[in-house]
Amino acid sequence: MLFGKRKNASAEPPEVPAGLCNLHCHILFGVDDGAKTEEQMYELIKTEYSFGVRYLCFTPHYNPALFEPDPEGIRSAFELAKSYVATNYADMRLFLGNEVFMRPDTLDRLRDGSCKPLGDSRTVLTEFHPSTSYDEMRRYTVGLIGQGYTPLFAHIERYDKLDDIDDIYELKSLGVKLQINTAAFESSRRKLISRLVEQGAIDVISDDRHNRTRGDPPISECYAYVCEHFGEHAAHALFIHRPMGILNISP
Ligand SMILES: [Fe+2]
Description:
Blueprint: E1 20-22, H1 38-51, E2 53-58, E3 61-62, H2 71-88, E4 93-96, E5 99-101, H3 106-111, E6 123-127, H4 134-146, E7 150-153, H5 165-174, E8 177-181, H6 190-198, E9 204-206, H7 219-230, H8 232-246
Helix pairs in contact: 1-2, 7-8
Bound molecules: fe (ii) ion (FE2).
């Protein structure tokens, strides 16, 4: 089992409900460093469904320094995914957005539609370079919020400069939402992450799935881990209620 030993090995393992909402993944094929082929995309959708995910938001990287933006490729892969899901998993809903890497021109790119918030929301899955300073993150935050967007910081366990809990709460007071990956509980920053989860400061847990080999821990196992260590109420909030709230959807 991932995430180490169970807290209480003799108790029944927590039941994972079908209805999880995964807001961050790279399953659309051929558009970034995620799935490479149509078949891989279908395989990963099947995997997410088997984990209990029923609301899945594709978030291809928008980072022109690393990946050539390909709006047409994204659109056509999304249409194929929708038709596959309609045929095979009628109770699954798909959404589209980007994981937007912050650069000086990002606001312009959001405004001209080159990159997109999550689904029909105004929430932007916001990625920083790992070396980005707190002040810089704060500057981008103020810019995004000033334009009516809500930043959802992606995988905050990766940002070493975000190590002061007061800084984190200042960002939250400005309106920032925080996402962690399922891998965060196995990262070197797991103590800080656990504290933030305990305090209710994390908004969303997603698996940031790229492919079958990268080893992103399954979202269902992470749900069970959170249930055991932080309670069912927290798991429900982090994997269902808050991510669905971000997409402005209800079951
Ligand atoms: Fe990602």
